[in-house]
Amino acid sequence: MRFTANKRAGRGKVVLASAALAISLLTVSGCGYITPQQTTARYAASDGIQADLGPLQLRNMLIVSAGENEPGRVLGAVYNSSSKDITLTISGAEGSETQIPVKAQSSTMLTDMTDPAILSTTGAPAGSVLNARIFENGTNLANDLTLPVLDSTLAEYRKYIPEGAESANPTESAGSSSSPTPSATSTPTTGG
């Protein structure tokens, strides 16, 4: 009998040690269970913003302009999930506005438009945001949608600066000028 009791006691120790190990593993790995996962958080992984306004989904929306008092081009994508055509109106600073037609169950890429969405004045310097109002067929959807304002500092946005505003942007004019300006020239250095 004694042999059987020792055997049972040994099994009990193994079971107890296994249970302690399992609890410790659950405790250590449990912190990952309660920590929020970044992949479940919605965010705009781009320079622009995103917004869901009723049947309209705005993605990567931003404004490209040469300056605060210069025209600004609206870039991004507008998705229309409704069964009717929609005209999206974006109103900016000083009464400037632009309209974007979006077909039913379709999308409009603002970089592909032959008639670009241009605000007559940006009203905000590059690096700031413009508080815009968004209308759908005359119905107000958002009063203060903050659209980031960018200039041609990033090369991928240079071609979207509205016509006539390029000369006001020092980054663009320095790169496209045929004669260098004193601020754009560099003096070679020699080691010595």
What does this structure look like?
With 192 residues, this protein is an alpha+beta fold. It has a domain at 49-176: Immunoglobulin-like. 21% of the residues lie in helices and 32% in strands. It has two helices and nine strands. It has helices spanning 2-34, 170-176; strands at 49-53, 56-65, 72-80, 86-91, 97-102, 106-109, 118-119, 129-136, 139-150. Strands 1, 2, 3, 4, 5, 6, 7, 8 and 9 form a nine-stranded mixed sheet that branches. A hairpin with a 2-residue loop joins strand 1 (49-53) and strand 2 (56-65). The longest helix is centred in the N-terminal third of the chain and has 33 residues, at 2-34. The radius of gyration is 29 Å and the shape is elongated. The termini are far apart.
Key features of this structure:
192 residues; alpha+beta; Immunoglobulin-like; nine-stranded mixed β-sheet; 32% strand; disordered C terminus
Q: Over all CA atoms, what is the radius of gyration?
A: 29 Å
**What kind of oligomer do you see?**
single chain
Mean pLDDT across the residues is 78
The total of helices stands at 2
- First CA to last CA: what distance? 95 Å
Strand content: 25-35%
Topology pattern, helix = H, strand = E: HEEEEEEEEEH
Broad CATH class of the domain at 49-176: Mainly Beta
Unreliable segments of 5+ consecutive residues: 166-192
> What name does the CATH topology of the domain at 49-176 carry?
Immunoglobulin-like
Classification by helices and strands: alpha+beta
Major sheet size, sense and barrel closure: 9 strands, mixed
Annotated CATH architecture of the domain at 49-176: Sandwich
Net shape:
elongated
Question: What is the count of β-strands?
Answer: 9
